[in-house]
Amino acid sequence: MIEVTGLRKSFGPTAALSGVDIAAREGSVHALIGENGAGKSTLLRILAGALAPDAGSMTLGGQPYRPESPEDARFRGVAMVHQELSLCPHLTVAENVLLGQEPSRYGLLQRREMELRASEALRPIVGVDHPLDLGKRAADLSPASQQLVEIGRALASPKLRVLILDEPTSSLGRADVERLFTVIRALRGRGLTILYVSHFLEEVKEIADTYTVLRDGWAVGEGAMAEATLPEIVEKMAGRKVEELFPRSPRPVGEALLEVTDLAGAIKPKRASFVLHRGEVVGIAGLLGAGRTELCRAIFGLDPVRSGSIRVGAMIGPASPASRLAQGMGLLSEDRKGEGLLGALSIADNLTLSQLSGLGPFGLVFPGKQRTAAERWIRSLGIRCQGPRQRVQGLSGGNQQKVALARLLYHGVDVLLLDEPTRGIDVASKAQIYGLIDEQARAGKAVLMVSSYLPELLGICDRIAVMRRGVLGAARPVSELSEHGVLLEATGG
Questions:
Q1: Residue 269, preceding peptide bond in cis (omega within 30° of 0)
Q2: Residues with Cβ < 8 Å from 325, sequence gap 6 or more?
């Protein structure tokens, strides 16, 4: 259905694509796999009409294909659902699905026709038993429902032949992932070609028919997914063997650094109690919306505390984020764009923003010292960039996440609250992040980690507590837990 031959694209001296060949059959799911910076985003943007290639050719259904814009690509039958959803929050479901394709007569919007067409586009993915409220604002939908509206918008294109899904499950719980996979299989059965990008290799293995691995702008591997093993794919992605995904060094457990007792927020959490010690990693599992993020925000001072107590070291009671930093606590937010990073500032500025002392006398910041401090963490975390002065907004999502984590490590906090720290990060980089977490715990830091990815919680945590509907259960040793048991507890099964 769609074929790419010798595709090249450079940005100045940097080659994003160096001659990529890809072919995806009609009625199949073809996975594009690679580390952050491998060239996946550039390739997708070219296919979707947002970028023009420097060289190479593309065909769609056997005919030459070179879209001049995303609108032209949709007209030709190629639509993309981006990882960062692009819905208009103030518009309704129906208005978002038909945005740019609104039916009108004599210049007047035909609302009845719009709702009929929106309902038709959504029916294959939501079914008749769980229809979406067409008049509901997008801002009032769950992340899973917003994802379905994005796909419905793509399906509203009358000529759709190729659907591109970029990290479609990054904000979804397992139940919503299963629902999405049912939708993808149905679309594949209708003859659509689906290009699927994800860092969750277990999910890729489950849903894809064929795959292509990109590394440093080259296609370095391809084949039938049923014949590939996950270690083989990881080795192709990284260009080396990833010996140990979940490192776990001996971690002597020390004094309690964080103690939370019967904590309740404005809405969530409803009740949470736990103790976090030096030298341990405690995981918080649960479904999306269970209150895990609200727990971290309440502890760090971003959300109000209704009742209960928080003790950080010798300090008791709620505090502002600035006070928490002064007490030795740092938060890595799941929303790196909204409140984690300042995209218009450089990597060096973002990394050192919370700790400028030591970069110059009398409150001054010497650029050379700031650059040296940033370069250390760029090397340590393997941040792919042009240098410390590159703007954060120009980095891939995974590398932005590394900058956010590097800021906590640079600040030298003793208590790390990590909310979905590996979301949007490739497998090799995840292994690196896991190693850093293990290293921090071994050095006597205390880590509280929220994750929707159970294998990483079971792999790197010492204890795990499950949150369900705002109530946090007791933290238990991972040796007593299984993925199946945690899921049952999270869902109330």
A1: yes
A2: 354, 411, 413
Confidence of residue 27 (pLDDT cuts 50, 70, 90): very high
Question: What is the structure's pLDDT at 373?
Answer: 82
- Higher per-residue confidence, 393 vs 127: 393
Residue 238 three-state SS: helix
Residues 177-181: contacts with CB under 8 Å, at least 24 apart: 177/203, 179/144, 180/144, 180/147, 180/148, 181/206, 181/207
Q: What b-and-e string marks burial along 209-239, b requiring 16 or more CB atoms within 10 Å of the CB?
A: bbbbbbbbbbbbbbeebeebeeeebbbbbbe
Residue 155 near residue 73 (C-beta atoms within 8 A): no
Assign residue 21 a region (left: φ > 0; alpha: ψ between -120 and 50; beta: otherwise): beta
Place of tokens 């790390």: 416
For residue 135, give both structure tokens.
């008049």
Note the helical H segments in 288-415: 292-300, 321-326, 347-352, 367-381, 397-411
- Cα 281 from chain centroid? 21
- pTM of the predicted structure, to 2 decimals: 0.62
Q: How confident is the model at residue 36 (pLDDT cuts 50, 70, 90)?
A: low
For every residue of 151-198, DSSP letters joined together read: HHHHHTSTT--EEEEESTTTT--HHHHHHHHHHHHHHHHTT-EEEEE-
214-254 confidence digits (pLDDT tens): 987 889 889 999 998 887 887 787 676 655 678 888 888 99
338 pLDDT exceeds 70?
Answer: no
**Which whole-number Å values give the CA distances from 188 to 124, 144, 163, in the listed order?**
11, 20, 10
Residues present in the chain in total: 493
What domains can be seen in the chain, in order of their start residue? 2-238 (3.40.50.300), 256-491 (3.40.50.300)
**What does pLDDT average to over the chain?**
85
Q: Assign 117 a pLDDT band (cuts: 50, 70, 90).
A: confident
